[in-house]
Structure formats: structure tokens, C-alpha cells
Amino acid sequence: MSADLLDEALARLAAAIERARAAGMVQPEAMALATADAEGRPSVRVVLAKGVGRDGIRFFTNLGSPKARHLAARPWAEACFYWDPLWEQARVAGRVERVSEAEADAYWASRPRARQLGAWASRQSEPLPDRATLEARLEAMAARFGEGPVPRPPFWSGLRIVPERIEFWRGDPARLNERECYRLEGGGWRRLLLYP
Ligand SMILES: Cc1cc2nc3c(=O)[nH]c(=O)nc-3n(C[C@H](O)[C@H](O)[C@H](O)COP(=O)(O)O)c2cc1C
Q1: How many CB atoms lie within 10 A of CB 157?
Q2: Contact (CB, 8 A) for 176 and 19
Q3: Which tens digits make up the pLDDT trace of 94-141?
Q4: What's the ipTM?
Q5: What span, in angstroms and rounded, lies between the C-alpha atoms of 61 and 124?
Q6: For residues 173 and 133, what is the distance between their CA atoms, to the nearest angstrom?
Q7: If you take atom 26 of ligand 1, which residue's CA is the nearest one?
Q8: In angstroms, rounded to a whole number, what is the distance separating the alpha carbons of residues 103 and 93?
Q9: Angle at CA 28, nearest 5°, toward 190 and 159?
């Protein structure tokens, strides 16, 4: 089947995010991202989807974080969106790849300076002795970069989930919830309904 089905699924995903925003959600691009460690133990946390394209759903993070280390060792993830005002869910699963350096630089440049400094100051998910330590690190970074541009840290970049499966769920008052799945099979995309 045609790759047009992938475009269709991505367009549905992007449209759902915008419908959820229009319905009042503040961060409809928030998605729960599941990864597994080297022993196969799962962990899940919310990240923000920053761009939905044929080559993947992107998010940006600290490359030393547990999630990034999981993905370096086991490059598969599933992300799940739930839009409460819409009573809809979408899941995207696939292989995870790094975005290009140019793309990471471009997104970094779009971030407010305070967040850039915050990324430098954070040793994401490592134990923090107290808040003052973080504030001192932030001040040290502000002093280090002065008035000039803040370069992207070597430990910060973007990852993209290259979709192999995209599933949409829509709640139904009679519990006959609608589920539609787009999946890559033998090099082609298929669309099928699933029992709720
Ligand atoms: C709404 C929301 C958005 C978030 N967005 C991101 C994000 O885009 N990137 C990120 O690294 N962490 C983000 N976080 C923090 C993560 O949920 C998590 O605490 C952090 O990345 C550490 O995860 P890890 O220890 O599993 O690597 C977000 C949290 C929330 C609640």
C-alpha cells in the first residue's frame, strides 16, 4: 500500500493536536514516551512533540538522561498522546534516531535564552543536593556565556521516533470506542480497524 497512508496518519496527528489546542488544552503536544532499559524494564515520562514529519516525531532532551541512554542502547520507543477535551488518544511507535546537528542547532536557536542556560545547568535526572546548587549552576552558566550567544551543549539534542505504527483511538459513550491503526508491513503502509 502507498506511503500516502503515512501522510494521512501524520496529518491526522497534527490535526488532533490543533483541535485539542482549539479546545483549550495548553500543551496538546505533550506525549508520554515509553522506553526500556537494557534489561527490558520500561519507564515512561512526558516530553513535548516538536514537529511531526515523515521522518519522525521529534522531541529534544539531555543526551545523558535515562531516556536518552535507554534509546542509545535500545532505539525503539512508543509515545502516547491523550487529549482529554477530545476524548481521543494517539500512539506512535517506531525506531528512534537522532535529528541532524543542523536541525538540533536550529531548534536550540529558537529557544529562549533562559531555557538555553537551564539546559546547560541541568544534569538531567542526576541527584540534586538542593535548589541552591541548581541556581548556582545557572548563575555560573550565565557568567560563562555573558552577553554572547549560548551555544548548544554537546549533551543536548533531538531524537525522532520514525513511525512504524500510528494508532488513533476515539472514545464512544457506548464504549464501542473507535480504533484505527496505520502500520508498516513489508515495506508498505496499511490502515486497519481494531476491536476496542
Ligand atoms: C508537560 C511536560 C513536558 C516535558 N517536556 C520535556 C521535553 O520536551 N524534554 C525533556 O527532556 N523533558 C521534558 N519533560 C520532563 C520529563 O518528563 C522528565 O522528567 C525528564 O526528561 C527526565 O526523564 P528521564 O529521567 O526519564 O530521562 C517534560 C515534562 C512535562 C510534565
Answers
A1: 21
A2: no
A3: 999 999 999 999 999 999 999 999 999 999 999 999 999 999 999 999
A4: 0.99
A5: 9
A6: 50
A7: 67
A8: 22
A9: 65
Residue 11 beta carbon below 6 angstroms from any ligand 1 atom: no
Give, in order, the Cα–Cα distances in Å from 1 to each of 33, 58, 96, 192: 28, 25, 23, 12
Residue 179 marked as a ligand binder: yes
Task: Give this prediction's pTM.
Answer: 0.96
111 annotated as a binding-site residue: no
Separation CA 70–CA 10 (nearest Å): 26
**Pocket lining: 124 vs ligand 1, CB cutoff 6 Å:** yes
Longest dimension (CA), the chain: 60
- Domains in the chain (CATH in brackets) are 5-112+154-193 (2.30.110.10)
Cα dihedral sign, 135-137-141-146: positive
